[in-house]
Amino acid sequence: MKSRFIYQKEKTRSISFPLGGVGTGSIGLAGNGQLIDWDIFNKPNKGSLNGSHFAIKVEKQGSLVDARVLHGDYPPPYMGSLHLPAYTSFGFGPPIDTLAGFPHFREVIFNGEFPIANLFFIDDHFPGKIVLTAFNPFIPLNEDDSGIPAAFFEYEIKNTASDPLDYTLSGMIRNPQPAPNIQQYQQQDGFHWLFLSSEGLAESAIGYGNMTLATDRSDVSFQEFAYRGSWFDTYEVYWQEFTSAGKFKNRGYSRDTAGDRNFAILAAHLHLKPEETKRVRFVIAWHFPNCENYWSEESCQRARQIGAPTTWKNYYATRFGDSRQSAVYALQHWDRLYGETMKFKNALYESSLPDAALDAVAANLSVLKSPTVMRLEDGTMYGFEGCHVGSGCCEGSCTHVWNYTQSMAFLFPRLERSMREADYRHNQRSDGGMRFRLILPLQLDAEKWWNFRACADGQFGGVLRVYREWKISGDMDWLRKMWQPVKKSIEFAWAPTNEDRWDPDQKGYLTGRQHHTLDMELFGPNAWLTGFYLAALKAGAEMAYTLGDMEAAALYGEIFTRGSQYLNVELFNGEYYYQKIDLADKTLLEDFHAVDPYWDEELGQIKYQIGEGCILDQVLAQWHATLYGLGGVLGSEKVEAALRSIYQYNFKAPMRKFPNPCRLFSLNDEAGLVICDYPSGRKKPRLPIPYAQETMTGFEYAAASQMIMVGLVDEGMRVVEAVRDRYDGEKRNPWNEIECGSNYARSMASYALLNAFSGFQFDMTCGWIGFSPVNLPENLDEPWSCFWSLDSGWGTVRVEKDCVRLTVLGGCLRLNFFHLPFLTKKVKAVYLGDRKICYHLQHQGIAFDECCILLPEMPLVVVTG
Questions:
Q1: With a cut of 70, which residues of the chain have pLDDT below it?
Q2: Alpha-carbon dihedral sign for residues 521, 523, 525, 526
Q3: In 3-state terms, what secondary structure has residue 794?
Q4: Cα separation of 27 and 36, whole Å?
Q5: Beta 793-799 vs 784-789: how paired, if at all?
Q6: 742-790 pLDDT per residue, tens
C-alpha cells in the first residue's frame, strides 16, 4: 500500500467513499466505516444518516466474549450538526443514528484506491482481525456491469485467539419507504436476503422503491423487523438481542402495525479455529426506478403543454426488476466483477506516474458513481455540474463544464457518445446555435424553448469532443450521422441569425458577445475562446475532408489560417495571451443591448473582462488538440511561454498572502492555481472576470497536465500535489472535489494526467496508437508502464530494457501502426503472442504488414537491442 492512499486518525475525518454504480447513485463509506450520504433516491442526499450498519460479536462456548459496531471512533466536533430537527441538532451531540455511543473499534485505517476501499479495524482488545473490502464494479468499456445499483462489502475475519470462537457478522438496514412497510426474508440458490418494500406507494409513484440486504453465507439468522418502539427503544432492544447468546429470533408485525422506517437484520454465523480466516459477503442493493425533473417546475409545465411525459425510468430499472435481482446478480457474479475491477485497478495503479497524479486520476473517477450523473431510460448519460445537499446543481450536461472531462470518453466511450448524440439531437436550433444545457424531458427541443445564450467554449468544445469520440472509436458511420449538426454548429459563428455575432466576416477570431464557463460574457478578441473556435475549425476541416465535404474543408482551413495568424500576432504580449479590449468603450455593450449588467458608471469600465490578465484557460484549446491528436492550434513556443507565465503568476503558495473575495476552495497554507491574476505592470480591471481569485480543480488539472505535456513536469506536479493535499481526508473528502457543489464534473479533467505522462496518442480510424512518455527512466533499471483505454479495448503498455510490451486486458485492439518515438535501440523482432509477425519501420514507429488483432493473453512485444 502506498502512503498517499492510506488515511488514518484525523485524516479519515472527512471521507465519504461512494459505493454505487455509474448513474445509479451511491452510499458513502465514511472514514470510520459508517454508512453515510445515502444518495440513492435519484437525487443527492448529502449528510444523511439512517442507522444502517454492520456489527460483529464473538462467542465462546455460548458465552459472549465481545460485541462491537464495525465503526471506528466518531470524529469531532461533538456538538452536533446544524440543520437537523429540534432536539437532534447543534447542541445535542452527535446524531443517534451515528451509533457513536455503542462499543466500536478504537481506530480504522482506510486504504482508498478507487474503486476499491480496504478498511482495517484496529483494537488490541478485540479477539480477531477484521478487514473490510468495499467496492462497486468499475470495468472499462462495460458500463452495464459498472452500473449495478448496489454496494459490495466483504469482511475478512481472522481468529487471533488461542481457542475456537464463534463470530456473528450482522447487517442492520432501515427501510426508507412509507407505511405500511413490507419486510420479507427470502432465500434461493444458496443466497439469503431481506427484501424491504412498502404498500404505501404505487409502482408508478415518484419515491416508490425497495431495498435488499443479501449474503451468500449458508448459516444465517434474521429479524424481518427489529423491535418497534418510541424514544430509543429500537436500538436498546436491538443491542440486548445482539449481545445475547446465539442467533437472532425473527420478529414480524402485521400490515396494520408495521408503520414506516423499520429496521431489519440479517446475520451470518461462522466458526473459526485459532488463526483461521473466513470471509463474509454482504450486498446492499436499491431500486428506485421512477425519475422526474424535480429541479425545474417550469420545464415540467412546458412538457405538459406539448403532451410530453414528465417522468421516466432509471436505466438500471430496465435491467433489473427490483433490488432482489440486483443483489442476486451481484452475488452470483461477485468473483468475476471483483476480478475485473481489480484487473483495472492494478493496471491503473501500476502506472509509472507520481503518486499524486495517480491519486488525482483515480479519485475523480468517483464522480461517475455519484448523483452528479444519471442514465436516462434509453441509456443516455446525463449529468449535472455537481450536487447541492439535496438536489442536482446546475442541470443539463453543461457543455462548458463537461468540456473538461476526459475520464468517461476513454473508459466508457459509448456513454460519452450518447451525450454527444443527445446534445446535437435536442439542443440545437436549425441555424446551428446550441444551448449549453440539455433540458429534461428531452422533448423540450432547443428550437421551441430557446432560453439560453449560445456558449462559445461549450459550442466549439462540442465539435472537439465529436472529433475525440470519432478518433477513439474509429466509427465512420457515427461520424457521418453527426456531421451535419456538427457542421451547422461550426458555421453558427458567422450565421446571420447569430445574435452574438461571433465572426460574421469569417476573420477567424471572435469579436462578438462571447458567453463562457465563468458565467458572463467577453466582448473583445481573446485566445481562450478564439482558441476553441480555431480548434473546432481545424477539427471540422479534417472531418469534412474525410467525409468528402471538400468545400467545407477548404473554407474552414482558410478561416483557421487567418485566425491563427491574428491570434499569435495580435493577442500575445511576449509572456502570455491576453484579451484585446478597451474597457472604457461603452459602445461595445450598446451594440449588443448589454449595457446592464456590464457597464459600471461609477468606475467608467466594462465589468467582468480579462483585459491584460493572465487567465488559466488561455491555451486550453491546445490542451484539447494535443490530447486528441489534432496538432497545433496555437504557436508551440508561445504555448510553453504562456504555461510558464500561468505557473509564475497564477500559482499561489501559500494562499494566506493572496486576497480572495470569491468562493474559498483553498485557504491558509494551502496552494493552488487561481483563475486569473495580473502581473506587476499589467492593468487590472476594477471588476475583473468572475471567480478570478478562486482555485477550481478542473481548471488546475487541465493547466497542470498541459504543463507536463510541454516538459514543465515539476511545475505541473507541484500544482497537482497542491490540489490533492487540499483533499487530504481531514480538511476535505478525497473523493469529492468541489466547485459549484459536490462531486463536481470538471474535476474529471484529471484523467488527462495519465495521457500526458504517457504521451498517449491514438487514431482508431486507421488503427494507430503511440506513446511518448515524459518520465521514461534513462537506463530503464525499473520498467515503465501505463494504463490506456480506447473504444474497443483497454490494457497496459510496458517499456523494459529489451522490449516494449502492449497488452490488452479487456476487449481487443486492431493495430496497423505502433508509434514509439522514444526508441533508441534497434528493433530486432515483433511478436503477437507467440507468433513472429512481419513489419517495417516508418515515421518513428512500426508499421505492420497485416493488421494485428490484440486480445487478452496475446500481447504485442517489440524486441529491441
A1: 1, 447, 449-450
A2: negative
A3: strand
A4: 6
A5: antiparallel
A6: 999 999 999 999 999 999 999 999 999 999 999 999 888 899 999 999 9
In three-state form (DSSP H/G/I as H, E/B as E, the rest C), the secondary structure along 526-581 is: EHHHHHHHHHHHHHHHHHHHHCCCHHHHHHHHHHHHHHHHHHHHHCECCCCECECC
And the C-alpha cell for 508? 477567424
Q: How far apart are CA 55 and CA 619, in angstroms?
A: 53
**What is the rounded distance in angstroms from the CA atom of residue 703 to the CA atom of residue 750?**
10
Preceding omega of 688 cis (within 30 degrees of 0):
no
* Residues sharing a CB contact under 8 Å with residue 682, sequence separation 6 or more, in sequence order: 612, 613, 614
Distance CA 679, CA 645 (A): 9
> Distance between CA atoms of 797 and 794, rounded to whole angstroms?
10
Burial call 191-200: b when 16+ CB within 10 Å, e when fewer? bbbbbbbbeb
Task: State the pLDDT at residue 842.
Answer: 92
Closest CA to 693 of 634, 585, 613: 613
**How many whole angstroms from its chain centre is CA 477?**
29
Is 456 within 8 Å of 510 (Cβ atoms)? yes
How far apart are the C-alpha atoms of 692 and 608, rounded to whole Å?
Answer: 9
User: Closest Cα partner for 434 from 452, 418, 417?
Assistant: 452
Q: 100: Cβ–Cβ under 8 A, 6 or more apart, which residues?
A: 71, 73, 74, 94
- What the block records as the C-alpha cell of 10 is 484525523
d(CA 234, CA 51): 11
Distance CA 707, CA 711 (A): 6
The pLDDT value recorded for residue 625 is: 98
pLDDT confidence of residue 445 = 78
Question: Which H/E stretch holds residue 628?
Answer: helix 620-628
228, three cell numbers: 418497534
Q: What is the 3-state secondary structure (H, E, C) of 459-473?
A: HHHHHHHHHHHHHHH
Query: What phi-psi label fits residue 298: left (phi over 0), alpha (psi between -120 and 50 degrees) or beta?
Result: alpha
The grid cell for 375 is 442514465
232-286 pLDDT per residue, tens: 999 999 999 999 999 999 999 999 999 999 999 999 999 999 999 999 999 999 9
Q: What is the DSSP letter of 76?
A: S
Residues 666-724 have pLDDT tens digits of 999 999 999 999 999 999 999 999 999 999 999 999 999 999 999 999 999 999 999 99
The secondary structure element, H or E, covering residue 227 is: none
Q: What is the reported pLDDT for 82?
A: 82
Query: Are the CB atoms for 613 and 680 separated by under 8 Å?
Result: no
Strands 26-30 and 35-39: antiparallel
How many DSSP H helices and E strands does the chain contain?
20, 42
**Where are the strands (E) in 708-777, listed by range?**
761-763, 768-770
Could you give the CA distance from residue 626 to residue 707 in angstroms, rounded to a whole number? 12
pLDDT recorded at residue 527: 97
- Radius of gyration from C-alpha coordinates of the chain: 28
**Which three cell numbers mark 382?**
446525463
The pTM of the full predicted model, rounded to 2 decimals, is 0.97
Alpha-carbon gap, residue 23 to 382, rounded angstroms = 8
Neighbour count for residue 834 (Cβ, 10 Å)? 7
Q: How far is CA 826 from the centre of its chain?
A: 41
Distance CA 566, CA 549 (A): 26
Indicate the Cα dihedral angle 311, 312, 313, 315, nearest 10°.
-140
pLDDT score at 1:
65
Locate 325 and state its grid cell: 435481482
Q: How far is CA 634 from CA 340, 560, 625, 713, 811, in A?
A: 41, 11, 10, 20, 36
Cell (9 digits) for 573: 504580449
What's the rounded Cα separation, in Å, for the pair 428 and 432?
A: 6
CA quadruple 328, 334, 338, 339: dihedral sign: negative
